[in-house]
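Thread: Modeling a multi-component assembly for a lab meeting

Hi all, long-time lurker, first post. My supervisor asked me to bring a structural picture of a complex we are working on to next week's group meeting, and I have zero experience with this. I have the sequence lines for every component (817 residues in total). Could someone generate the structure of the whole assembly? Inputs are pasted exactly as I received them:
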Amino acid sequence: MSIDMAQFHQVFFEESFEGLDAMESGLLNLDMGDVDKEEINTIFRAAHSIKGGSGTFGFTSVSDFTHVMETLLDEMRDGRRQITQTALDVLLGSVDCLREMLTAIQEGDEVNESKVAEHKQALDKELNGESTEVPQIENIAQSIDTIESSKAANEGSSQAGWHIVFSPHAHLLKTGNDPVRMFRELKELGELTAIVDLQGVPGLYDLDPEDCHLSWDLKIEGDISREEIDDIFDWVEDDCDMAIQTLTNGVTTSQHPTNDVAPNQINSAANSEQPAESNDVKPEKISSVQAVNQSAKPKAEKKEAKPKGSSSIRVDTAKIDTLINMVGELVITQSMLSLVGEDFSPHKLEQLKNGITQLGRNTRELQESVMNIRMLPISFVFSRFPRLVHDLSTKLNKKIELKLSGENTEVDKTVVELISDPLVHLVRNSLDHGIEMPEDRVAAGKPETGTVNLNAYHRGGNIVIEVVDDGKGLNKEVLRAKAIEKGLIEEDAILTDKQTYELIFHAGFSTAEKLTDVSGRGVGMDVVRKNIQSLGGNIEIESELGKGSTIAIHLPLTLAILDGQSVAVGDETYIVPLVSIIETLNIDESMVNRVAGKGETFRLRDEYLPIVRMHEIFSVETAKATRLTEGLLVVVEGQGMRCGLFVDDLLGQQQVVIKSLEANYRRVEGISGATILGDGSVALILDIPGLVRLSNL
Amino acid sequence: MATILAVDDSASMRQMVTFTLKGAGFDVVDAVDGVDALNKAKANKFDLVVTDVNMPNKDGITLIKDLRALPDYKFIPMLMLTTESGTDKKMQGKAAGATGWIVKPFNPDQLLKTVKKVLG
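Re: Modeling a multi-component assembly
Sure thing. I ran the full set together rather than chain by chain. Output:
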């Protein structure tokens, strides 16, 4: 039977990366306090699993590498080795190296051999106190094995068969071993005669039916190697007394017993021939084995490695069960409805209505549970930060403690994938620019160790992710001066606090007096904001000079479905995301100002809102309302700015499934996507921040 | 056909073992660690247990020991999947009541050969 092992590779890579994450966080926890036995065990287990899997799936370079890590960890686990900071650093470095190796193999790239060798040398050095060539020793052992077995095979080939005396210990059956199984295997090798010895069977009263009381005298004829015989009895070696002798034409000529039957003969046989011969063969053997390994390995791995395909997702079985349950109910509703439909008569109307209500409920529940499958805990993202903070604070010579909260908050899988980089940038910024040097902190009357909190929680229909630090905070004066210097604002511009902080999102804005290699060169924050906006979210900053800053990212719960308000403009229907609507009102002409060249504004309480005439922007000729008093003004907010959308009418609220316009057509300013309505027609979903931008031009 | 309990905390190994054995026509139930396996073993009667050694919650050797203590599993064959470096583990496993072992890394053919050998 041949099985394509490649089908298991994806799962292997996923669990290996998870294992590496576990090792990393475990190693980081180890240096924070006293040594936790279970923690080392977890780290060891992860290394052990990666080694086992990589060996099985043919990634020998990975299993060789992990083997050294495993040995080191094993010694730490048993208390045979002191856990030092150097050792931890070497192990952390190896985790990174292993991650790179696995990524390279997964993507079918070349493994960076020199880097691997470097890390392996560091591991060997840590393990042995100096650099040694461990693999060579293994190879020697292997080649000796090969020689021994071929020797054994040769020895056996001249024989006519074997005579075996087999006396199992009483408990043999309780190990799940069955003598019959062994005899069956022997029979496959050659002609078998078995004579049972009943002498050991006690009287009926003394007989324990669960014990084995029999022994056997076995003769097997044929050209059979000793190794084949040993293989069969391998598992029961310690559970029996056994003597194996060679047969030549049915005559016993020499003895090769095991256990307590004449052990000296075994030794003499082994001593007399094998070592001498293996010594002679050793050098060529080793070099050829190594040469084969080196030339064959990269090719073989490359062939097996697959390009990174569609990603997979690990789902709690409870979620799947719920889903199956929902589908079951849906099927029931469907059969009920088709029964009603078979011979429909008006008096069945009530039944039909019930059925449709039920269908509606089923659909909603099904939708919810399907969405639920895409949800992953934010810990997938947070888990990389302890390492990041550990490494960076060492590099910056700062003392920083990272606190995580709300790791179990679930977010859409796409969010998990895309939020990571922006978040790394924000945390790096906090560490680099936010938290002060220990001496500065003490001078400012703060604890020496700075704190960075990463929080995640639900608020309304949103997920909020916060990066909070107790560092020096943003200096408004510095920000302002910088913005004037860069020509971003006029010298006499009046800015609110919020607007001042927003300045850091401008491309090319960097307040750090000195550029470090830790955080960026002023190209970062605008990219961060763009990334978050592409996820349908926004980012806000709060800060107090000397006390610290809070950067909050607000993200929608899911990216695939949107709560929308449909509005009519002529024959067209548009969807306005419900979250961005502030209010809707009739327009009082007296509140409208027309500014030459700048369009119309509407005075809402003390604020002037630009009016966006939807029928003009989207060139809808069938619009019913062209005079402002005839339609409605939907006040919306995006990126902290507001505007009024002028529409014919409000239609209704509904959840819509977002279909990408970019993927199917092209990007259109002011439109974020499209959806299909109940009647089959297509409605465009408005991109409010985009429209606000348009209205302010 | 015989029913086999396959225990491994590694998803890829579990899949490989399950897929191989199912492909050969065995009924296979899998378990993610010793605790899961013990619960499943109590709820069903298996003809063979194939278990990894290093696992969280309950390791393979303790699992074998616990299973042997159950009347239903007194004589049932139990195989452990172990790495070649694990001579100690083999001995510990034998002491706990393991029938035998399959040395990692192994390929599906080796696994099947051993399983068929044990189940006859």
